[in-house]
Design a protein that fits this description.
Helix content is 38%, strand content 17%. With 433 residues, the protein is an alpha/beta fold. About 2% of the residues have low confidence.
Length: 433
């Protein structure tokens, strides 16, 4: 049950802010109850308005890969703040951050910094259209690429259909060029290219989708995406806002490059980890492609706070820390121990449970096996998840308050945190079986 202070703050918020929150998933609408209002955070924990501590597995929805308040990041931000909040002019740190990104992502030769993942994704789509001279794009059901109008569409059933808006305020004509396909469906992908390949500017994809919990693109599916884009002259755009520097130092594209010789996307959209918790995102690709952007080319994109000096300080310090030897091995081991413990606890309770992870990102489903697309994800038991969420919350464990969101482990999570989480889950699973 929510504490009085959290409930009081929620009432104040609802009087002034639609739904009481500034991003819908925070409202607990999917699980019921009152949101916890965070007062402070440190390491693997945050404390709510009543001073209750929670083990944090959302990490600001992914950016806090080092945990909250990492001393080197904090120092970098404090030094940057003293120099100035914003200049609206170039800084050396923008170059340093770009160099750090390019160093770790072989597919990226040039990068443009922006302020949000939505901004990066919409700019990447504009660049793809401008560079190819084509209008149509492909996205996949269950993949979220921010709230730009052209990307707020859902799929039709059966054969591939052009999308219909999933938000009021998005005119049908805005999404008439957005083709929405079923994730991991090779036959449907081939059909779409056969019908529209000459006017397809790009495929936009989350290679490891984190907005339908945690669903991987199969290697054959990803290989076919690359082959068809190359064959028809379309661009393969990886949305790595969530996975970039989270699942590994080379992101999701590095995971697929290990399985597909010579694999690389044409363009990459980044966010979250590269800002270390500050509002910062980016998109990048080959030099010849990126030079289509203004002021060099005809594709316009601009931003008052792009490359903000405080955000770049936070992001640069974060990227330098995660590039240290052994970082990802330790993070992946910690995440694996969590999902292994959860799976064992669910099995003890006789509860249908499927889980997967990569690097510091994980997901689980109240299903007997891992889903391959959004339709299968939707078969997960939503009411039971709500009970699981609140059972964990009551035991000091905070996971995403929505069935369709991935979770995140940070370098600050220790063995004791994992053990406490697994024990809490074991207790709750027994009540759900």
């Amino acid at each position: 049950m929510a504490t009085d202070k959290n409930a009081e703050l929620f009432e104040r918020a609802r009087a002034l802010i639609p739904g009481g929150v500034n991003s819908p998933v925070r409202a607990f609408r999917a699980v019921g109850g009152t949101p916890r209002f965070v007062q402070r955070a440190q390491g693997a924990y945050f404390w709510d308005a009543e001073g209750t501590r929670y083990i944090d597995y959302i990490g600001s929805w992914g950016p806090m890969i080092l945990g909250h308040g990492h001393p080197r990041v904090l120092d970098a931000v404090q030094r940057a703040v003293r120099d100035g909040f914003s200049f609206g002019a170039p800084t050396e740190r923008e170059i340093e951050l770009a160099e750090e990104i390019v160093k770790h992502l072989p597919s990226v030769e040039m990068v443009r910094l922006v302020s949000s993942g939505t901004e990066a994704a919409m700019s990447a789509i504009r660049l793809a259209r401008g560079a190819t001279g084509r209008n149509r794009i492909i996205k996949f059901e269950g993949c979220y690429h921010g709230h730009a109008d052209a990307l707020l569409v859902k799929a039709g059933s059966g054969l591939a259909t052009f999308g219909h808006p999933t938000s009021a305020g998005v005119p049908p004509e805005v999404v008439q060029h957005t083709l929405v396909l079923e994730y991991n469906n090779i036959a449907q992908l081939e059909e779409a290219f056969a019908a529209h390949g000459d006017d397809l500017a790009c495929i936009m994809i989350e290679a490891i989708a984190g907005n339908m919990n945690f669903v991987r693109a199969s290697v054959p599916f990803m290989k076919r995406c690359r082959e068809l884009c190359t064959q028809y002259g379309a661009l393969l755009v990886f949305d790595e806002v969530m996975t970039g520097f989270r699942v590994g130092l080379r992101g999701a594209q590095g995971v697929y490059a290990q399985a597909i010789p010579g694999f690389a996307p044409d363009m990459t959209v980044l966010g979250k980890v590269i800002g270390g918790g500050m509002p910062l995102a980016a998109f990048g690709g080959r030099k010849a492609l990126m030079e289509n952007l203004a002021p060099l080319g005809p594709v316009y994109q601009a931003g008052t706070l792009s490359g903000n000096p405080v955000a770049t300080a936070c992001g640069l310090a974060t990227l330098q820390e995660i590039a240290l030897p052994g970082f990802y091995q330790a993070l992946a081991a910690r995440t694996q121990s969590l999902v292994d413990g959860l799976a064992a606890a669910a099995q003890e309770a006789g509860l249908p449970f499927a889980t997967d992870c990569e690097g510091g990102m994980f997901g689980f489903f109240l299903l007997p096996q891992l889903p391959q697309n959004y339709g299968q994800v939707m078969k997960s038991d939503s009411p039971k998840f709500g009970r699981l969420f609140h059972g964990l919350l009551d035991r000091g464990v905070y996971i995403a308050p929505a069935l369709y969101e991935a979770g995140f482990v940070s370098a600050a999570h220790g063995e004791e945190d994992i053990a406490q989480t697994v024990q809490a889950a074991r207790e709750v699973f027994k009540t759900l079986a």
